[in-house]
Amino acid sequence: MQKVDNTEETRGKIIGDFIDYKFFKLTLKKLTPNHRYNIISNMNCAIFMDRDGTIIKELPYISEPEKVELLQGAVSAIKLFRAKGFKVIIITNQSGVGRGYFSLRTLKMVNQRLFNLLKHNGTCVDKLYFCTHKPEDNCECRKPKTGMIEQAKKEFDISLKDSYIIGDKLEDIELGKAAGIRTVLVMTGHGKETGKKVTPNFVAKDLIEAANWICSQS
Q1: Which residue out of 5, 50, 126, 157 is catalytically annotated?
Q2: 12, 35, 47, 154: which has the highest count of C-beta atoms within 10 A?
Q3: Distance, CA of 119 to CA of 128 (rounded, Å)
């Protein structure tokens, strides 16, 4: 694999992609009073989710947008979180950029493909944060360090103690514990291997089972 020099454009940055979700806001007018109450009561709570192996199919260093594939139940889970008023935020390590496997532009194209698939299915996320550093860079944003969580907390005024993190990897669960967030391990992606190494607050078969459990707690 030919390496791409991305050093200058990504050094020392926590980078985020926003989604245009004006189409979703239009549905608020149609909500019942009970749905409106759910949204108000959870407005400072967030669901943090890993990307690869949690929302989309796990592929090593995915760099081809056309290979992005939503996992079964992912759309339903995100719709449920939004109906309950949670902010939905993706937190993902993407060291393929730092390693030179693909460019920052390519990563953004992959993210945009995910956004487009969600929008096509009638939902969206509030923001996606990604860290492009290699593990040896010892940055403050790469999971399980809390840099991306802290940035999201600041931007969205999030109550971490009332929030959750869902992922299939060890660093997702370790991040949640470090940040004081309740943790959910999904058995998709690397979940089965991760389950042998860590004890989360809940173990779910997939994202929709995780969503049903979280919503039953709130």
Answers
A1: 50
A2: 47
A3: 14
